[in-house]
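Friendly challenge for the regulars: who can give me the structure tokens for this chain first? No prize, just bragging rights.
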Amino acid sequence: AANDRDLIIQEQKTWIGELEKAKSWLEEQRVNWQTIAGEHEKICKEQQQRIGELEKAKVWLEEQLQRWQTEAERWRGRAQEWQSRLWTRIGVKLKTVAPPASIASDPSTETKND
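First reply, four minutes later:
Bragging rights claimed.
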């Protein structure tokens, strides 16, 4: 009976040793996963910060685009105004200036109605 009991005690000690190894391995895995989770959380925070910065940059770029579109429209309007004034001045000059005598007396410039 003592041998059986010693055998059982030895098996239990072996089993306890295996359980302690498993416990140590599990603790090591927990530490590793905890480290990975911490790194992941840090990366997520950094990405959130970058997203915030990118959103601010996008708003700024949209404001700049609107500003430049408004400025371009203003310049387009001014160019059309200048063009209109130029054509008005040219038109006035064309109306007030008589054609040169050589063109007025050139029979090839006359319209034929046959």
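Residues 29 and 60 are 46 Å apart (CA to CA). The radius of gyration is 47 Å. Your move, everyone else.
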